[in-house]
Design a protein that fits this description.
single chain; mainly alpha
């Protein structure tokens, strides 16, 4: 899906790209339909402006992307190849690794192309596509963590009924519903931007085509867009946090009823990786939004913080699940041993056949 998106954006962007640089913050858009409705040919991404030595940060993001691809690719391969990991729990982990990989691919390569190579103009349609894919994969990551919390809740609170409740069809249905519902929701809020008229500035003060910085550039009424922004924030951040919090309240109650301290600690360890993932994903998002509302943040500080919030969780998630989970580590060892045996067997066959000739 994201490969098609980049092909689509490339052809649109190359056909409309201008060679001049923007000289001010109030560049006028070209009218499309009539005198009262104005749709811009291009937007201009103004993130990372006037930051000294910012090239080093772009190089850092490049390494982040490479490690993200390698880590999530490894985790996806291990789960796919090892049949013992074909369980409901690791179906959720597979979904998280996939969305991490897709989300980083939707954001970082285009970010580097825009700022490292100074190609800051982006076609109107490509900007909306860019916005959709980045927001969509972030939202899927959020609700995948809720599905993980549900898995841990059933495993600890209803251990005897776990295998009858958390089944492969049930997890597939939950994940599929999340993908369909969230794609529809994000498509709706992105589609609402198409009704706006941009008769003033087309300079987006962000590092990608973010929802709020784009719709706030419009000249006509943006009250519906503003309402939907709050609704989406509640659905994507507040509701998942509340649901995860409720599950861990019940998990804490269930753990307090376990008499043995050793068994209690063993059950708690199964939640450690998930709690780390939740902290990595939600704390920066919530902290950035609270800080933006409660006090003034310099635009460059906000942009760097937001870009790290969008990229670092996808980097750390596979590390948490490969280094903290014994099942995955053992599966990697088995795959390495299997490949070693295959290589030894194949080399012996080659040597024996060469001796015959």
């Amino acid at each position: 899906m994201f490969i098609l998106y980049y092909i689509f954006c490339y052809f649109l962007f190359s056909s409309f790209r201008k060679q001049k640089l923007i000289m001010g913050l109030e560049e006028k858009a070209a009218p499309i339909f009539n005198a009262t409705f104005v749709r811009p040919a291009n937007f201009y991404l103004n993130g990372f402006s006037n930051i000294p030595h910012v090239t080093y940060y772009y190089v850092f993001l490049c390494f982040v992307y490479i490690i993200t691809v390698l880590g999530n690719g490894l985790l996806l391969s291990v789960i796919y190849l090892v049949k013992t990991l074909h369980t409901p729990k690791y179906m959720i982990v597979f979904n998280l690794a996939l969305t991490d990989l897709c989300g980083s691919t939707a954001l970082i390569p285009k970010l580097l192309d825009t700022f490292l190579f100074d190609r800051r103009y982006i076609v109107y349609e490509a900007c909306l596509s860019y916005m959709f894919f980045v927001l969509f994969f972030v939202s899927v990551q959020s609700w995948t963590l809720v599905t993980m919390a549900y898995d841990r809740f059933i495993a600890i609170c209803f251990p005897l009924r776990y295998h009858s409740i958390v089944t492969k069809p049930a997890i597939v249905a939950m994940l599929l519903f999340a993908w369909i519902f969230l794609s529809s929701l994000v498509a709706f809020i992105v589609g609402l931007i198409d009704r706006l008229s941009f008769c003033g500035s087309v300079v987006i003060k962000s590092f990608f085509c973010d929802h709020a910085p784009v719709y706030r550039l419009a000249c006509n009424d943006t009250s519906l867009n503003n309402i939907m922004a709050y609704i989406v924030f509640i659905i994507l951040i507040v509701c998942p946090l509340i649901l995860i919090g409720i599950t861990y309240v019940y998990i804490s109650i269930a753990l307090s009823r376990i008499a043995s301290a050793e068994e209690r600690l063993k059950a708690l360890k199964t939640c450690t990786s998930h709690l780390i993932l939740v902290s990595i994903f939600f704390l920066p998002l919530v902290g950035t939004n609270i800080a933006a509302v409660a006090s003034y943040i310099h635009p460059n500080a906000r942009i760097i913080n937001s870009s790290l919030t969008h990229t670092i969780p996808a980097l750390l998630n596979p590390i948490v699940y490969s280094l903290k989970t014994e099942e995955v580590l053992n599966s990697i060892r088995k795959l390495c041993k299997r490949n070693r045996l295959i290589n030894i067997t194949s080399s012996k066959k080659v040597n024996s056949s060469s001796q015959l000739y």
